[in-house]
Amino acid sequence: MNKEKIVIVGFGTLLLQESLGDTVAGDRPKKLTPIIVKNYRRLFNLLPDHYEASNFLRTDGTEIGAANIEPAEGAHFNGVCFSVVKNELENLDKRERYYKRSIVPYSDFVTGEELGMCHVYESPLDARWLVRNTDDLLPLWRDIVYARVGAYRISNAFGKMYDATTYLADGKTRMINYYKEYINALENLEAVRRKYQK
User: Fold this and answer.
1) In angstroms, rounded to a whole number, what is the distance separating the alpha carbons of residues 46 and 4?
2) Could you tell me which residues are beta bridge partners of residue 79?
3) CATH number for region 6-197
């Protein structure tokens, strides 16, 4: 088996160690290093065929979006990097089947030091499953929960950057602003996450 390690960046549900562990199982959890990727924007504009709507705010089936990243000059997002070997990469590629794997530069979250090149999962810009209108697509509530729990576990500063750099399908509306009336639920995510794991 090939033991060469590849650096992957998680920016959505892969921010949560338990969610990552569902795909990359091992004897111990992966070491997650907080990083930043520049010139990309994170947004919930991907409509997976296999998702079922959460109907948290709406009952029209539009709360079914997954996180994605797209090139955006001057933008950035925070994520976590971790190393995988060939069989783990194959499992991740199956999980992230709506995305292509690209190689981009990344930097340390705390120091800003450039760390080299990493792999990110981004959807092709012309993919049929991309939606650009928030009337037609909102995030799957579980995906918000998983990502925010993972982000705030790393640190308060990391969580705040997640909130500041995460957008809805239009790429303009910040996710945290849209859900501001539900901030108490968002601040008590561990309890909500446990509900979704049942």
Assistant:
1) 31
2) 35
3) 3.10.490.10
Q: Angle, nearest 10°, between helix axes 189-197 and 141-154?
A: 130
Task: Take residue 9 and report the two structure tokens written for it.
Answer: 């960046």
Phi, psi of 28 (to 5 degrees): -140, 155
pTM of the model: 0.89
- 25-31-40 Cα angle (round to 5): 100
Cα separation, 55 vs 62, in Å, equals 8
Q: Give residue-wise pLDDT tens across range 80-103.
A: 999 998 889 999 999 899 999 999
Instruction: Give the span between the Cα atoms of 178 and 143, in whole angstroms.
Output: 15
Cβ atoms of residues 41 and 69 within 8 Å: yes
Cβ contacts of residue 116 below 8 Å, gap of 6+? 7, 105, 106
Asked whether the beta carbons of 89 and 20 are under 8 A apart, the reply is: no
d(CA 144, CA 109): 21
What sections of 5-140 are H helices per DSSP? 17-23, 86-95
Token digits for 6?
Answer: 């590849």
